[in-house]
Amino acid sequence: MAEQKNPLTTPSPNADTTIVPPGSPHTHTEQPSGGHGGAFPPFESHTFLSQLIWLALAFGLLYYLMSKVALPRIEAILGERAGRLSSDLNEAQRMKAEADAAGAAYEQSLREAQVKAQAIAQETRNSLSAEADAKRKTLEAELNQRLAASEATIRARTTEAMGNVRTIAGETASAIVERLTGQAPDQASLNRALDATSAVH
Amino acid sequence: MAVSIDPIHQFELQPLVSLGHIGNQQLAFTQSALYMFAAVGIIALLTIVATSGRAVVPGRLQALAETLYEFIADTVHQATGADGKRFLPLVFSLFMFVLILNLLGMIPYAFAVTSHLIVTFGLALVVILTVVIYGVAKHGTHFLGVFVPSGVPKPLLLIMVPIEIVSFLSRPISLSVRLFANILAGHIALKIFAFFVVQLLVAGAWGVLSPLPLALTIALTALEFLVAALQAYVFATLTAVYLADALHPGH
């Protein structure tokens, strides 16, 4: 390969080693010198047009592919991802707000329920104690009434008993006097003596 | 593939199909053209086939394509602002084309298309023609403001304007020569140092020194990979900077 003459870089009039038609009118002054063309390949101007044409074709194709297909697609992918991310974040934000609102509502209803429960408890307590009071008062009144009735009965019995005592004492005294004197005392002096005795007690 | 000790040999064009000639210009489908179309194929594979799934959660190749896209989109956005987005396909194509051609050239025995000045000059010409044509079409004569630095006293403009014109005209040259020279010099250096290894090995006792150029060759290979990516990035960044002139001529 190193020894082979290169039709582009080492133009040669020999048709047998090159594909270039013989007698091509290039004015290259370099002579093939074994190893390589001798000229510095990047500065061999007779290759320039060919390179520029291929460059234009290749780069034109690349530019077309990039501007029409690749870049719009990548941009769309990135845009879609950014949109997806922001919409997901918004969704998360919204859900968090909803959860917060639900939490607040729960707290609120809990507080309301507590207040209501306390009110009910207070009311129940009040009504129960009022009822108990009323019952107690009725009971007390009844008991007092019974007590009074009992006391009245006792007093009546006592009075009755005391009355009986006077009669018994009178009869006894009359019997004693009759036995001692043989003569029953008259009722008037007996009564006088009984009154005097009961007045001493 | 025959190995030549000549470090220049690797840059020779090998015609695969000869297509005759026009004047003194020889037309042929060379290995250079083959590499260009191979690069286009690889880029299409990477950016079109790999993204055909349009996955929201990307695979490796799609993630690579997206990363490259965002990298170049950021570069263009920083250099040109929001309205530079219309040039993204051009800058992206240039970056990928140069990057893949540079990297293909790093494969042993492969041909480095970007080591030919006419190719890099052709790419630089695309950039400068885009700048001039778009600038004139968009701004008309205001595009000439690109040569007039703002905030400079009038007498100084007599000096500044010619300098700006020369600097503008040298842009395609510097853009193309930078890439061409980097790739060419790198490949020549690699070849020379790699050949030192062989020369030392066949030189008897001197063979004990052969690991030195070998180590250097390995280091140079790593450096050349860096250069291959860096030059593609430099080319794309400068393209974006020049395009910013077309968008906003008064600077």
TrEMBL record, chain A:
Residues 1-39 are annotated as: Disordered. Residues 1-17 have a biased composition (Polar residues). It comes from the Bacteria. Pfam families: ATP-synt_B. Keywords: ATP synthesis, Cell membrane, CF(0), Hydrogen ion transport, Ion transport, Membrane, Transmembrane, Transmembrane helix, Transport. Its main location: membrane. The chain crosses the membrane at residues 48-66. It is a single-pass membrane protein. InterPro entries: ATP_synth_b/b'su_bac/chlpt, ATP_synthase_B_chain. CDD domains: ATP-synt_Fo_b. It is found in: Cell inner membrane; Cell membrane. Component of the F(0) channel, it forms part of the peripheral stalk, linking F(1) to F(0). The b'-subunit is a diverged and duplicated form of b found in plants and photosynthetic bacteria. F(1)F(0) ATP synthase produces ATP from ADP in the presence of a proton or sodium gradient. F-type ATPases consist of two structural domains, F(1) containing the extramembraneous catalytic core and F(0) containing the membrane proton channel, linked together by a central stalk and a peripheral stalk. During catalysis, ATP synthesis in the catalytic domain of F(1) is coupled via a rotary mechanism of the central stalk subunits to proton translocation. PANTHER family: ATP SYNTHASE SUBUNIT B (PTHR33445:SF1), ATP SYNTHASE SUBUNIT B', CHLOROPLASTIC (PTHR33445). Belongs to the ATPase B chain family. F-type ATPases have 2 components, F(1) - the catalytic core - and F(0) - the membrane proton channel. F(1) has five subunits: alpha(3), beta(3), gamma(1), delta(1), epsilon(1). F(0) has three main subunits: a(1), b(2) and c(10-14). The alpha and beta chains form an alternating ring which encloses part of the gamma chain. F(1) is attached to F(0) by a central stalk formed by the gamma and epsilon chains, while a peripheral stalk is formed by the delta and b chains. This is ATP synthase subunit b. It comes from Methylorubrum rhodesianum. The gene is atpF.
TrEMBL record, chain B:
Belongs to the ATPase A chain family. It comes from Methylorubrum populi. CDD domains: ATP-synt_Fo_a_6. This is ATP synthase subunit a. Keywords: ATP synthesis, Cell membrane, CF(0), Hydrogen ion transport, Ion transport, Membrane, Transmembrane, Transmembrane helix, Transport. It is a multi-pass membrane protein. The chain crosses the membrane at residues 33-51, 87-105, 117-137, 188-209, 215-244. Gene3D superfamilies: ATP synthase, F0 complex, subunit A.
